[in-house]
Amino acid sequence: MPHSSGFYAPTFDADGLEADSSSLESGQLYLWFPVGVAERRVRQHLRQSGRVFRFTPTGAMSIEAPDGSSSALIAELGAILTSDESADTRCVFKSGSEELNGDDIVRVRTLDQLSGALAV
Question: Which tens digit of pLDDT belongs to each residue from 28-44?
């Protein structure tokens, strides 16, 4: 997996999904919700489960995903959101501790797409 200063540089398949999404490591999962009720439900779940999260200047919710927990986090979110909310929630996973930048825009997917790529 290529790295540059802690930034995960993914390889994309023909569908634009990361070719090796199953190897997500520690980092941040950034989410943009379609509706406030979905964001509130996720925020409540994160507080109850003790996960660390914050909001970025872009309005994204950033959730810490320590080593080995990124797949579990994505599965948790898929379980608490409705199918429509999962299909409309945009997200990007960034390994390490670097903040989002313009290069990350092409990697933004729906939660459903990221979850489906991990299930393969």
Answer: 999 999 999 999 999 99
Residue 100 near residue 30 (C-beta atoms within 8 A) = yes
Phi, psi of 6 (to 5 degrees): 80, 0
pLDDT of residue 85: 96
pLDDT above 90 (res 84): yes
Would you state the pLDDT for residue 37?
96
CA 7-23-71 angle, 5° bins: 100
Claim: this prediction has a pTM higher than 0.70: yes
What class, spelled out in words, does domain 25-119 have in CATH?
alpha beta
Q: What is the 3-state secondary structure (H, E, C) of 81-102?
A: CCHHHHHHCEEEEEECCCCCCH
Exposed e or buried b for every residue in 69-93, given b needs 16+ CB within 10 A? bbbebbebbbeebeeebbebbbbbb
Residue 110 contacts residue 86 (beta carbons within 8 Å): yes
Radius of gyration of the chain (CA): 13
Beta carbons of 30 and 56 less than 8 angstroms apart: yes
